[in-house]
Every structure is written in structure tokens, then in C-alpha cells.
Design brief:
about 130 residues; alpha+beta; Elongation Factor Tu (Ef-tu), domain 3; about 20% helix; globular; transferase; nucleotide-binding
């Protein structure tokens, strides 16, 4: 584990809906200009007002879908209802792995399941 502690304000933007269709709905964010971390998958937290949710965070391109522009999205490990106009912050707590392209979407989903288990363990230790 490579612990870090970077917290940034984030704004939700409309995504393409792919995560929801694959059973891993994500919140998509505008990329803050102050985000200077390397592209990758991170363990972290979404802070919404007084609530804090464990998150698997992806920052970077989406090579699985041939998209080279970076994106920022978070899959929350708990169910959450976030009211509109809630101020949000995203905390990056640990680097998990680099962004990669998988042989298939099925292989990508298997790896995401492994990532989520690892992220849950890491965040329980922090």
C-alpha cells in the first residue's frame, strides 16, 4: 500500500452510464485543476456534508473503451443518497494500481472486484 492524503473539492458531472449498466455505478466528477496525482486506481473517501463514504477511485484514461482523455470517477462501497447541491470532497488515501486495458470487459470487472476488496481492507486500517 502506498498511503497518501490528498483531499479536493469535486463537482459531479453526467457520465455515460456504462458503470450502472455493468453493475458498478460510479459518480463522475469534473477534474479539479489542482489534481496532480498520477493516473491510476485509488482507495479513498467521498465526503458529502457530514457523511463519509468508502470509494474506489479511478483517475485517468479509459483504455478499455478506447478513451484517451482522463476521467475522474468513484464507485462508492456503501449505498449513498447524496442530496443535490451538497458540497463534495474526494480524498485519495492510497494508490492501488495503474490504469490498464484488459483482454475483455469481463476481465476488467473481475479485477474491479479484486480492487474493491483490497480497497475495503485498506480503508478499514486507516
Amino acid at each position: 500500500m502506498n498511503p497518501i492524503n490528498v483531499t479536493l473539492p469535486v463537482t459531479v458531472v453526467k457520465g455515460k452510464g456504462r458503470g450502472k449498466k455493468m453493475g458498478i455505478p460510479t459518480l463522475n466528477f469534473a477534474i479539479p485543476k489542482t489534481l496532480k496525482l498520477p493516473h491510476g486506481v485509488y482507495a479513498g473517501w467521498l465526503i458529502a456534508g457530514k457523511y463519509k463514504y468508502q470509494a474506489a477511485i479511478h483517475f485517468g484514461p479509459r483504455p478499455q473503451f478506447n478513451e484517451t482523455d482522463p476521467s475522474l470517477e468513484a464507485y462508492l462501497l456503501q449505498n449513498a443518497i447524496i442530496p443535490q447541491n451538497t458540497e463534495l470532497q474526494l480524498t485519495f488515501s492510497a494508490f492501488i494500481r495503474n490504469v490498464q486495458k484488459f483482454p475483455s470487459v469481463s476481465e476488467m470487472l473481475k479485477r474491479i472486484a479484486v480492487d474493491v476488496k483490497e480497497i475495503n481492507k485498506i480503508l478499514l486500517q486507516l
